Amino acid sequence: MEEVKEEGEEMDVNDCGGGGLEVVRVLVVDDSPVDRKIVEMLLRRSEGIFDVVSVDSGKKAMEVLGLNEIEAKPPNHDDQKIDIVLTDYCMPEMTGLDLLKAVKANSSSRSIPVVMMSSENDSERISSCRAIGAEDFILKPLQVKDVQRLRTYTVPIGPMSKRGSKRKLPMALIAESNGAEARPLLAKVAAFGSAVFLTLNFWRSSVMSSSCN
Amino acid sequence: MALHISSAPPISAFHHLLCFFFHDTYPEMEYASSLQRQLASMKKNLFDQGYLDEQFYQLEELQDESSPNFVEEVVTLFFRDSSRLVANIDQALQKYPQDFRRLDNFMHQLKGSASSIGAAKMKNECTSFREFCNKENREGCLRSFQKVKKEHAVLKQKLENYFQLLRQDGPVDKATRSGN
C-alpha cells in the first residue's frame, strides 16, 4: 500500500486550535498508477489540507477501512482514520460500486463520505451510485476544482457520529503561493531594462538639442 | 525639426550593455534561450498536431519545486503502464473466439490513462477501437489497434525527445551559479 504523508503531520486532526486548518485524511482507491499519482499530487498541492493514503484495489481499501471480513479487524483507530474515500468506479475484481456498497452497509464506516471517479459520463451509473449513498461523482481526469470540493463533503450534518465526524466547517483554502524565489538574474534584467531606458532618453534628448541648434 | 533615424543609438551600444550587465552569464543565457526556443517549438508542434491537449498543461501546473520532474514521472509511468496494456490487447486479439468484453476493458484502461496525460490522438484511437468492440467487429478492432500502437509509438518518441531537451535546459539558477 502506497502512503503519502505530509511532513510533520503529527497534529491531532480534531484540534483546530485558534482557527487552524484541519487535515482531511483521504483514501484514494484507483487501479491506475497514472491516475493515482495525479490525484495524489492534486491533493498534495492543496497546501497540507489533505493527508493522502492511496491503494490500488477495492480489497486493499477494505483493509484500510477495517472492513476486511477475513481478518475481522476492529474499526479503524486514529492512525488509520479516514475522513473521505475517493474511489475509481471501474476496477478489476472489486469495483468502486462494490466498495461503496460495502462502506455504506457497515455501521462503523457508513458515515464516511464516498466520492466516485470515472472517465465515463454514464447517467445510469451516476444515479445508481448516488442512490446507494455516494456524495458525488467526478469525471476523470480530475481538476483542481474537483479536489477543492472534497472538503465540503466532510462537514458534519446533525449530531456527532462515531467515525469521521470530528470535523469543522471548511475554511477557505490557503491561496497557493507562487513559491518562486527572487532570482539574481531578475535583478540584473531589471537593471538592464533601466539602463536601456536611460540610454534611449539620453540619445533622444541629445538629438533633440542638436536639431534645435 | 524631424528626428533623424541615423541618430538612433547604435546596436553595438546595447551589446555592450548586455555584456556589462550579464558578463558572467551571457554565453549561458544565449544557449539557454536557444534551448528554450527549441522546447517551445517542440511543445507547440505537439499541440498543433493534436498529439497533446489541455490536460498536459494541467499536469504542468501541478509541477513545482518540490516535484520538479512530476510531468516526466507521470509520462514515464504512463508509457510503462500503457506498454503492458498494449501487450495484453495484442495477446487477447490473437485468441479465438474473441472476448470483446475483455478487450474493451483493457482499452478502457488505456484510454483512461491516455486521457489523464493529455494524449489526445491516442485517446481518440482508443475510442474508435472501443466502438468496433461494441459492434464485435474483429477486423475493425485489428485495424484500429494498429493505429493505437502507431500513435503510442510516435507519442513515446516525441515525448522522449522533448524531455531529453528539457533536461538539458535545466533550471535557470544552475546557469547563473556556475559562473561564480
Secondary structure tally, helices of chain A:
6
- Name of the CATH class of the domain at 28-153 in chain A: Alpha Beta
Oligomer: heterodimer
Order of helices and strands of chain B: HHHHHHHH
CATH architecture of the domain at 28-153 in chain A: 3-Layer(aba) Sandwich
What share of residues of chain A is helical? 25-40%
What is the first-to-last residue Cα distance of chain A? 84 Å
- Please give the number of β-strands of chain A: 6
Regions with little confidence, pLDDT below 50 for 5+ residues of chain A: 5-19, 156-182
Q: Number of DSSP helices of chain B?
A: 8
In angstroms, what is the radius of gyration of chain B? 24 Å
Give the overall shape of chain B.
elongated
Q: Specify the CATH homologous superfamily of the domain at 28-153 in chain A.
A: Response regulator
* Largest sheet properties of chain B: none
Looking across the biggest beta sheet of chain A, what order are the strands in? Answer: 1-3-2-4-5-6
Could you give the count of β-strands of chain B? Answer: 0
Organism (chain B): Musa acuminata subsp. malaccensis
Function (chain B): Functions as a two-component phosphorelay mediator between cytokinin sensor histidine kinases and response regulators (B-type ARRs). Plays an important role in propagating cytokinin signal transduction.
GO molecular function, one term (chain B): protein histidine kinase binding
GO biological process, one term (chain B): cytokinin-activated signaling pathway
Structure in words:
- With 213 residues, chain A is an alpha/beta fold.
- Helices cover 35% and strands 14% of the residues of chain A.
- In chain A, strands 1-3-2-4-5-6 form a 6-stranded mixed beta sheet, with helices on both faces.
- Chain B has a single domain, classed as Four Helix Bundle (Hemerythrin (Met), subunit A).
- Helix content of chain B is 78%, strand content 0%.
- In chain B, α6 runs antiparallel to α7.
- Chain B is elongated and about 75 Å long.
- The interface between A and B is large, with 36 and 40 residues.
